[in-house]
Every structure is written in C-alpha cells, then in structure tokens.
C-alpha cells in the first residue's frame, strides 16, 4: 500500500530556512551579485585583451592611454628643424632673385614679342627663369614643411631632392660616356651664339667674355665669324670680313681707349699676318684646355654640392620620422 500512498511532509516551523538576504548587512552579498561580478570581470578581461591585440584601433581607449608612452622632441630635432628651415629660406630668396633677373632680362629685351618669340628657346635668360622657378618651388616647400611640420611638403621636398641627386649622377655618367659628342654640341651652340651676336645682348656678352678670357676667336678659328650676317664678307657694312674687338690681341688704342674697329678686315688676312692682330685659335680648344687644367677643382665642387644635397636629404628624412612619431603619440 505504501507504493500507492503519497505522504506529504508538513514543514515544521524550525525546519524553515531564511532564504531572504538582509540588505542592511554589509557582509552578505546581494542576490545576483556573483553573476554581475563575473560579467564585469569578463568585460574588463576582454577590454585588456582587445587593447593588446588592436593597437591601432584602441589608442584612444582609457586602458591603453594609461600605459601609452610619451614621445617628445629632442634638442637635436629642434636643431634639424630650424636648420632646414633657415637653409631653405636662404635658397628660396636666392631663387626669387634669379627668377626676377631672368624675367627682367626677357621683358627688357622684348623677347616675348611676336618677331622674337621663335628664338626664345636659345635665350640665356630663359635658363635663369627656369632655374629660379625650380629653386623657388623646391626650397619653399622644404621651408614651409619644416616650419609647419607638414609631412606632405617634406615628402615632396625629399622626393624632389632625391630626383635632383639622381639626375645629377645620371648627367655625370652620360657626360663621361658621351664626351666625344659634347664637343659637337658646344660647337653648334657657339656658332648659334655668334650668328646672333649683334641681335642678342646676352649672347654678345657671353661670347665676348669667352673670347677675351680664353684669348680665342670663333669656334674653331677666326674665320667662323662668316656665319654672322654683319661680319660676312658679302655684307655691305663696315664690319664685313671683320671680327669683334674681343678677338684682337691689343684691343686698346694707345693702351687707354677701346678700339672697336681693330678687327675690321681680319678675315681677309692670312694666318701669318693675322696672328699679330687677332687670336687665331678657336674657343672650343680653349674651353677644353681650361677644363683639363681645372678638372680637380670641378670634381671637388661637384662632390661637395652632391654631398650637401645628400645631407639635406638625410636631415629631411630624420625630421620627417620625428614628426610622424610625435603625431602618433600625441
């Protein structure tokens, strides 16, 4: 019968247990606090784990900022910054001066006129304009980039300096490998300058300086002046069959007065007679001899200029790294 009878225990008063918690007791935890503590502990643990694995995404989290290192500029960084700024400022001003001189030369000679625009490509002032413009833009980007700590401008400046260094090295290699053809290019350029001797004051000044300093006349010899329409023997003027006064051995009359007519009719003279009046040798040979005599100085200057550019590139790279580290850990 026991199998089919249900005996229900009647709970007695002393069997009852107080399952309710005393909220006023500080020693007894609240209901459900264990679960909340476990959830909070898991949240903190996951936050630490996430902060350790995702450095780039959690730089702003409070957990990461407590252990984040503080990067500050060193004295060397400040020195490199202002040294680069001052150097580029000086060369920026120099580039503006060169650009201004080139533009002034083109405007004063009216090189942009319709009848002269075709020969502007051989104008020496165009070289000054191009050099001044490139120098100004290049150094201005480095100057502003160093002062404002602008990474884009500093990268542009360093890339331009690197391209310039590469171009100079390639030009030196090309000049060495094509040194036989360089003489032909110089000859063509000098003949073109002689043909425009009376029309372009800059080409006239350059030609006179070469002939007087190297004591030469023409490109190969004094008869090359036939390419000029005024010194050609078929010209109707008084300068026909003559040469400029800078070709004369003694262009000063009585040692004091410049005699601009000392070379008149010199092309009609034979070499034996002409050698007492004018220089017979051409300027191309004089230029070659001058380069051979000063090749050590030319090499030293080229190496120094290239070394300065490499140092500037190194300073820019070092400053760029410092700026990037400072921005990351700010």
TrEMBL record:
Gene3D superfamilies: Tetraspanin (1.10.1450.10). One of its GO terms (molecular function) is enzyme binding. The chain crosses the membrane at residues 82-107, 127-147, 159-178, 297-320. Keywords: Cell membrane, Disulfide bond, Glycoprotein, Membrane, Transmembrane, Transmembrane helix. It holds the Pfam family Tetraspanin. It is a multi-pass membrane protein. It comes from the Eukaryota. It is found in: Cell membrane. CDD domains: oculospanin_like_LEL. Signal peptide: none annotated. One of its GO terms (cellular component) is plasma membrane. Part of TspanC8 subgroup, composed of 6 members that interact with the transmembrane metalloprotease ADAM10. This interaction is required for ADAM10 exit from the endoplasmic reticulum and for enzymatic maturation and trafficking to the cell surface as well as substrate specificity. Different TspanC8/ADAM10 complexes have distinct substrates. Interacts with ADAM10. Belongs to the tetraspanin (TM4SF) family. This is Tetraspanin-10. It comes from Lates calcarifer (Barramundi). The lineage of its organism: Eukaryota, Metazoa, Chordata, Craniata, Vertebrata.
């Amino acid at each position: 019968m026991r199998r089919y009878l249900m005996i229900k225990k009647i709970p007695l008063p002393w069997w009852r247990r107080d399952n309710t918690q005393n909220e006023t007791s500080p020693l007894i935890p609240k209901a459900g606090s264990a679960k909340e503590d476990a959830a909070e502990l898991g949240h903190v643990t996951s936050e630490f784990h996430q902060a350790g694995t995702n450095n780039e995404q959690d730089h702003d989290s409070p957990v990461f900022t407590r252990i984040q290192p503080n990067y500050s500029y060193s004295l060397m960084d400040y020195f490199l910054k202002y040294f680069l700024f001052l150097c580029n400022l000086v060369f920026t001003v120099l580039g503006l001066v060169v650009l201004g001189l080139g533009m002034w030369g083109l405007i004063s000679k009216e090189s942009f006129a319709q009848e002269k625009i075709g020969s502007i490509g051989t104008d020496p002032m165009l070289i000054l304009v191009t050099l001044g413009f490139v120098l100004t833009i290049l150094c201005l980007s480095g100057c502003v980039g160093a002062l404002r700590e602008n990474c884009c401008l500093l990268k542009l400046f360093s890339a331009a300096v690197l391209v310039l260094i590469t171009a100079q090295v390639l030009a030196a290699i090309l000049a060495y490998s094509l040194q036989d053809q360089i003489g032909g290019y110089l000859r063509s350029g000098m003949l073109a300058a002689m043909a425009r001797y009376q029309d372009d004051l800059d080409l006239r000044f350059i030609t006179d300086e070469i002939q007087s300093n190297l004591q030469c006349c023409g490109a190969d010899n004094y008869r090359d002046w036939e390419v000029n329409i005024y010194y050609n023997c078929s010209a109707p003027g008084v300068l026909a069959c003559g040469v400029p006064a800078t070709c004369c051995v003694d262009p000063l009359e009585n040692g004091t007065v410049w005699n601009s007519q000392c070379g008149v009719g010199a092309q009609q003279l034979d070499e034996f007679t002409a050698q007492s009046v004018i220089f017979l040798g051409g300027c191309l040979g004089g230029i070659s001899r001058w380069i051979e005599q000063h090749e050590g100085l030319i090499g030293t200057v080229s190496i120094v200029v290239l070394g300065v550019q490499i140092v500037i590139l190194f300073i820019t790279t070092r400053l760029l790294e410092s700026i990037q580290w400072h921005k990351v850990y700010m």
